[in-house]
Amino acid sequence: MRLIKLKVTNFRCFKEETAADLDDITVFIGKNDSGKSSLFDAMDIFIDEKKVPEADDCCVHAKDNTIRIACVFDSLPKQLVIDEQHPTDLASEYLLNPDGNLEVAKVYTCPGKGKGKLKGIFARANHPTAENYSELLSLTNAKLKQRANQLDVDLSNVNQTINTSIRRAIWSHAPDLQCQVADIELKSETAEKIWEQLKKHLPVFALFKSDRPSTDQDEEAQDPMKSAIKEALKGQEATLNDIAEKVKKEVQEIANRTVEKIREMNPELAKQLTPRVANKNWDSLFSVTLTGGKDGQTVIHDGHADETVSEITNSLGVLPDHNIKVFFGVEGRNDIAFFTVISRILRDAGEDVPDLGKAEDEGHLVFVPLGGNNLDLWVSRLKGFNRPEFYLMDRDTLPPVKPKYHAIAEELGRRANCTVWTTERKELENYIHPDPIKAQYPKYAGAGVEFEDVPTPFAQVVHEASSSDQTWADVISDPEKLGKKVSKAKKRLNSEFVKLMTPDLLTKVDSKDEVRTWLKAIGAALKG
Q1: Which residue did the predictor score with more confidence, 251 or 9?
Q2: Pairing status of strand 418-422 against strand 389-393
Q3: Are 352 and 523 in contact (CB under 8 A)?
Q4: How confident is the model at residue 186 (pLDDT cuts 50, 70, 90)?
Q5: Which DSSP state fits 294?
Q6: N or C end of the chain, less CB within 10 A?
Q7: Half-sphere exposure (CA, 13 Å, Cβ side) for 222?
Q8: pLDDT digits over 266-316, tens only?
Q9: CA of residue 440 relative to chain centroid, distance
Q10: What is the CA radius of gyration of the chain?
Q11: Rounded-to-integer distance, Cα 518 and Cα 370, Å
Q12: Which of 459, 380, 373 is CA-nearest to residue 415?
């Protein structure tokens, strides 16, 4: 099963139910003590049955001492065996939530001291709530047959030794199951078997902390607070001292009377007792806890939402820990390889252009591989970072037809601090001169024309020069096989053959000097 969502309630800084969507890679960004580590700890407690919350894990803002940690899973097992060797599935048992996923919640009670205790395990599911149909998972075989008889359910064609079959017959008999979202306890005989089977499919979870735990009780947080407490107490020093003396006097009298009472019973013991009353410093009676979010509640913002970048910018500041100067968005890794190599060739030849590979290594430039089909997703992704942005898109289409990504380019171009280019030639491979290719593959048919297809003819000549038994006609008849050939061709062109380019060859193939223009603009931004 795959974990896709975590929900926590009344756990540390999360008072109300708070959900965090999880993906193949998930990043939590936030200030110190905003709850990032708490989410990972919650996952760890849920997956590891040996672990339970600590007594002080209850949210300080809540009156309840119950903690709820829920995990939502997809990629569910198709079958579960809970009745001998007879399989069932979660959908048939009405144990899936309205989204068709499995949502399991563990509920813990946390007393004032010691560790918490597991109170129950529940599946939050779209489950029957109609009378006589809601609690079938908790019934034994004998009671299921009794319920079927009570409801006049015909079991003549049902294997009555299998609870799953009886439940299905009863549920199918109902005119309206009145399914609603409810917590189904997984502690009954049948449901517990389901949970035992599900545990075998839980994901493996390992929690690694790359630095020491950091909390609001650390010295760097507490020392300034202690100073503030002392300053506040100074103004009330006389009043507090009077209170301390009165309390000390009364307690001393009680202690003296206690010793006298002991003396009546055991004089020898009383001789060993000397009643003394000591009071602590007032500042030791106060501690400070720092909370964030709304009303002490940490809020999780969806990372897919455009406004989340603004939230990060406003709360954490923009790029405080590095010296990135430029974002350069290209369509993919082949484009990155092209610019890394061609910029170094021109730079080594003495031209006034930046070495983009070096700029990236030094942390001044970030290549952003946009992916041709996902360009629209990046229209607003980087605007909150307040750094120069450059985007290069392949034209792909022959004029007078507008470039393939014309609309997106226009939208990006309206943004401040954003420069957008569209190639004048078909795509970036058209800026590689054909001579280096023909030196290795004389039969290559490319001529360096602006809108010719470069990768496909190159893939063809490479294939025909190989020892493959398949003809090129066989390859192009299989779109998947052709796609792989063209993809490999693009990779070779933008790595191996770009390295064979010279400034003169670039001038010949790029008569409008586009590549140099792009590089010089990026270079100016890197210097700025």
Answers
A1: 9
A2: parallel
A3: yes
A4: confident
A5: B
A6: C
A7: 10
A8: 888 777 777 777 766 766 666 555 445 555 567 777 766 666 766 666 665
A9: 47
A10: 35
A11: 18
A12: 380
Take residue 329 and report the two structure tokens written for it: 């968005």
Read off the tokens for 443. Answer: 């039969």
**Torsion angle of the four alpha carbons 454, 460, 465, 468, in this order, in degrees rounded to the nearest 10:** 150
Say if residues 383 and 415 touch (Cβ distance below 8 Å). Answer: yes
| Single-letter code of the amino acid located at 157 | N
Tokens standing for residue 138: 């908790």
Nearest C-alpha neighbor of 404 from the set 415, 413, 414, 393: 393
Q: Which two tokens stand for residue 180?
A: 């609603």
Burial degree of 382 (CB within 10 A; 0-12, 13-18, 19+): buried
Tokens of 351: 């031209």
What per-residue string of b and e applies to 283-298 under the rule 16 or more CB within 10 Å gives b?
eeeeeeeebbbeeebb
CA geometry: angle 396, 399, 400, nearest 5 deg: 135
User: What value, to the nearest 5°, has the Cα angle with vertex 285 and ends 279 and 288?
Assistant: 165
Give the Cα separation of 174 and 155 in Å (integer).
14
User: From CA 376, how far away is CA 408, in angstroms rounded?
Assistant: 6
SS3 (DSSP) at 473: helix
Q: Which residue has the tokens 């579960």?
A: 80
Give the Cβ contact number of residue 212 at 10 Å: 7
